[in-house]
Amino acid sequence: MQKLTRIITLSVALTVVSGCSYVGVYKRDIPQGNLVTQEMVSQLQPGMTQEQVTYVMGRPLLEAPFDSSQWDYVFRLDKAYGDVEQRRVTLTFDPRGRLANIEQEGDLSKALPFEAESSIGPATEGVDPMDALPEESTQTPIPPSAQTAPRT
User: Fold this and answer.
1) Tens of pLDDT along 61-119?
2) Does residue 18 sit within a domain?
3) Residue 99 contacts residue 83 (beta carbons within 8 Å)
4) pLDDT tier at 24 (50, 70, 90 boundaries)?
5) Residue 54 near residue 105 (C-beta atoms within 8 A)
6) Which terminal CB of the chain, N or C, has fewer other CB atoms within 10 Å?
7) CA atoms of 50 and 57, how far apart (whole Å)
8) Nearest to 43 by CA among 29, 33, 56
9) Is residue 81 part of a domain?
10) 3-state secondary structure string, 9-58?
11) Where is the sequence biased in composition, kind Polar residues (predicted)?
12) Which of 42-56, 81-95, 120-134 has the lowest mean pLDDT?
């Protein structure tokens, strides 16, 4: 009976301990969609053409399939150890293709927590990887005594 109690206690303890992990799993932020900032939206003005809007905002993430007069720019940032931030800008065009209405959802003025990569990263296709390396000066410096102007 005492042996059975020890076995049950040990198996319950192992089950409880195996469910608790002190070592965390690496997570990263996942940005999706069109990056939308307040600076971009502030450049939009009613009456702009679709080409002008595309120049400022880029191509929309969503175009209504049955109504090409509405464009949706959606940005979603799933923070690794936090909540989800979502921004949405809906642009409506009149029948002539001019911007008529701008609707915003989310806090566009808040800066996004993007960190710049310090490493070089993968090379772009068709580019020599050696071109991505920082250039070093290959010329030898001229000593100050030799930099005087020649005498005539």
Assistant:
1) 777 777 778 888 888 888 877 788 888 899 999 988 899 999 988 887 777 766 545 44
2) no
3) no
4) low
5) no
6) C
7) 10
8) 56
9) yes
10) HHHHHHHHHHHCCCCCCCCCCEEEECCCCHHHHHCCCCCCEHHHHHHHHC
11) 136-152
12) 120-134
Beta bridge partners of 78: 30, 84
Residue position matching structure tokens 């993968």: 122
What is the number of domains present in the chain?
Answer: 1
CATH number at residue 96: 3.30.1450
Residue 39 domain-assigned? yes
Contact between 36 and 75 (Cβ < 8 Å) = yes
Place of tokens 């965390």: 24
- For residue 112, the Cα-to-chain-centroid distance in whole angstroms is 8
Question: DSSP state, 147?
Answer: G
For residue 27, give both structure tokens: 């997570």
In a domain, 129, yes or no: no
Domain containing residue 42: 28-111
pTM as predicted? 0.56
Distance CA 123, CA 4 (A): 62
